Amino acid sequence: MDFDRLFEKDKELRRRDFLKLTGALGGAMLLGNTGKVFAQAKKRISIATGGMGGVYFVIGGGIASILTKYTGVEAAAEVTSASVDNCKLIAAKKSDMAEIMADTGYDAYKGIGNFKGRPIPIRTLTFLYPNLMHVVTLEGKGIKKVADLKGKRVSTGSPGSGTEVIALRVLEAGGINHEKDIKKDRLGAGESAGALKDGKIDAYFWDGGVPTSSVLDLAASPGVKMVLIPQDDELIGKMVKKYGPMYYKSVIPKKVYTGIEHDIPVVVVGNLMVCHQDMDEKLAYNIVKTIFEHLKELAAIHKEALHINLKDGSGDKAVPYHKGAAKYFKEKGFNVLV
After folding, report:
1. What CA–CA distance (Å, rounded) separates 98 from 186?
2. Any long-range contacts for 165-168 (C-beta under 8 Å, 24+ apart)?
3. How many whole angstroms separate alpha carbon 172 and alpha carbon 158?
4. Are strands 203-208 and 153-155 parallel, antiparallel or unpaired?
5. Is the dihedral of CA 298, 301, 306, 311 positive or negative?
6. Least CB-packed of 8, 113, 279, 334 within 10 Å?
């Protein structure tokens, strides 16, 4: 083995890493100033979000931006499969914060459902905004209600996503066995929209904020007449009876998507920003404080942030709050479950 060559290669790699680091620091590092620069390095935190076609990634990126701008951390949003996987990332401490759906969070905290026998020590930082269930199809598919999905090829959301969890529950409440009654694909928001447009599937589920960019793009595509399938009171009632009050009814407003001329009744579940129970209390406090102090900036990135408010932010009952978050809400006059 040529050790001299290996040594030189290692030196070159280290030199490249050094150049990358100095570049990332905007040239601030000088040979005689290395200790000072490293002393000023920010704490890095990661935010697990969702797929790039959904609202999680946009909102998560916005939160990362304001945390980096106004606190002593350097935050970055990560593309993930969303809720289920995000809970696992928190459990493994591979992500510091995560956006999840409240029903998935409840299951993770209790150690049931996808987390049976493996409870995860997650804690709520704040309630964010509601997720509305989009059941998307095209005109001419003969699909007017959830029960009409029987025999169709349907995408139920990407593996490890909260969309998949709630999609299977919607199908169940609609009288459909997802293992026998449909041809099932498991695609993310953007992939599902593309597959529907290309005729590869008949419908897909997407649970997210309104509007969602991938649904917007599909609705505005030339030659496409998108249809959103309503979920009636009976279906939502069955879900509440079996899985609890995390689910409730709302509407996707008319005209929010091209061609949607009437309000569409749908099942809703809240979104949470969560962390590990071991997060530093001061850091958790500062994160929540910064989010609420800069909601206007966040809303400029995505208007779902307009739904974020102190009353709802402190009102979740699915997952107990982190002590740092609880301290902030108490200062604002709201007591939360810890």
Report:
1. 22
2. 165/83, 165/84, 165/101, 165/103, 165/104, 165/107, 165/113, 165/114, 166/101, 166/103, 166/133, 166/205, 166/207, 166/267, 166/269, 167/133, 167/205, 167/207
3. 18
4. parallel
5. negative
6. 8
Helical axes 162-173 vs 233-243, angle rounded to 10°: 120
Which residue type is seen at 214? Answer: S
Q: Half-sphere exposure (CA, 13 Å, Cβ side) for 273?
A: 30
Q: What angle do CA 299, 302, 303 make, to 5 degrees?
A: 60
The per-residue pLDDT for range 27-61, each reduced to its tens digit, is 333 334 444 444 456 899 999 999 887 889 999 99
Separation of alpha carbons 279 and 64, rounded Å: 17
Which among 246, 158, 249 has a CA at the least distance from the CA of 206?
A: 158
Contact assessment for residue 182 and residue 149, using Cβ atoms and an 8 Å cutoff:
yes
